[in-house]
Design a protein that fits this description.
This protein is mostly helical and 362 residues long. Helices cover 80% and strands 0% of the residues.
Length: 362
């Protein structure tokens, strides 16, 4: 019963904190472009952002040995809000972009490391349904944030939005105050990770970066209206909620994932070859039916660890892999400097990931 309450409290934390952070994160690449930064500069930004994320994740997880997670989350929330305010007032010069990347990285990856630790620690024996519920709560928050982000950014000052972000982030921590966590992972050690699991970690970063850059593609090639971009994100998330409900409970992903992933890649391929704003709305709806299916599998692959695994050591390794792969890809993109070609490459990575075998849920 204690563990069941843990996952409920964690889901409330995810709902509120995801909503708060994605008010600005959902359109981050578009915001940078609107500020006047070139594609090359945006890719340099993400290269430094992800590279510094390795250090941030390592430092954050090690700090949990001495500082309570709730206090680290408070610091993370404040720095994240400061980074948003900084980008709002900074002059458009390259050094400011780099400073922002470091601030943004600290606020982002400290949060991600801690939420993954809390998520893994809160799961009960019915991991598959719990993971599906986590994704559903995240989706609800993302839908709301996608709908209101354009409105808030056009109606409120940056200082007010920063205050809102801090307040919501602090509220999200309240359910965690009574979270019951196992203390056995206070010592950090590094366990061996299955080779196929690591391979999936590597190739799934294609999906992460595709979702990061597709709003910019829509803004550049379909309709240069930030509210329209927000609507497409919301439509994708709404359709994905429908699919997640049936996917998690009705479909054996070990048998079907490869084929569903091929269909998803075909949809993504078609998506970046159309420019009609009405047809795009239909395509993003279809995309939503598959992209969250992928994220459920992705989260299963990450959270599916034995009870003997040292969670903090495991997360240092996984977060380092995530950030390093994304940093390398972002560095390569600096020299490609063509968004369509980059999206084709990312779809290829997504396609390959579907053929990697995964272990059963423990």
């Amino acid at each position: 019963m204690v563990i069941d309450m843990n996952i409920k409290r964690y889901n409330i934390f995810i709902l509120i904190s995801t909503f708060a952070r994605n008010i600005i994160e959902v359109l981050s690449s578009v915001i940078l472009y609107k500020m006047g930064y070139t594609l090359k500069e945006i890719f340099i930004f993400y290269f430094t952002f992800y590279l510094s994320g390795i250090v941030v994740s390592f430092t954050t997880i090690n700090l949990t040995k001495k500082i309570k997670i709730k206090y680290l989350l408070i610091i993370s929330s404040i720095i994240f809000s400061i980074s948003f305010y900084y980008i709002s007032v900074m002059d458009k010069i390259f050094i400011n972009l780099i400073i922002f990347s470091f601030l943004y990285s600290i606020g982002t990856f400290s949060y991600h490391s801690l939420r993954h630790y809390l998520g893994i620690s809160s799961l009960d024996n019915n991991k598959k349904n719990d993971i599906g519920n986590i994704v559903i709560y995240m989706n609800i928050a993302l839908i709301i944030s996608s709908l209101v982000s354009g409105y808030l950014n056009s109606m409120l000052s940056n200082i007010i939005i920063s205050i809102i972000l801090i307040v919501l982030s602090l509220i999200s921590i309240i359910p965690l105050l009574r979270l019951n966590l196992d203390k056995k992972n206070n010592i950090i050690k590094y366990d061996k990770i299955d080779k196929n699991r690591i391979l999936f970690f590597i190739f799934e970063q294609g999906k992460v970066l595709f979702l990061l850059f597709e709003p910019l593609y829509i803004y550049l090639y379909v309709m240069d209206n930030i509210k329209y971009v927000g609507i497409t994100s919301s439509l994708t998330l709404i359709s994905s909620l429908i699919f997640i409900y049936f996917f998690v409970r009705k479909i054996d992903d070990r048998k079907c994932f490869k084929y569903l992933n091929i269909i998803l890649c075909l949809i993504l391929f078609f998506k970046i070859n159309i420019s009609n704003k009405y047809l795009m709305l239909f395509i993003v709806f279809l995309e939503g039916l598959g992209i969250k299916m992928y994220e459920v599998v992705s989260m299963e692959n990450m959270y599916n660890i034995s009870h003997s695994t040292n969670i903090k050591g495991y997360l240092i390794i996984t977060e380092s892999i995530f950030c390093l792969v994304r940093a390398i890809l972002s560095f390569i993109f600096i020299y490609i400097d063509n968004l369509k070609i980059i999206l084709y490459l990312l779809i290829t990575l997504i396609l390959i990931s579907g053929f990697i075998k995964r272990r059963k849920m423990l």
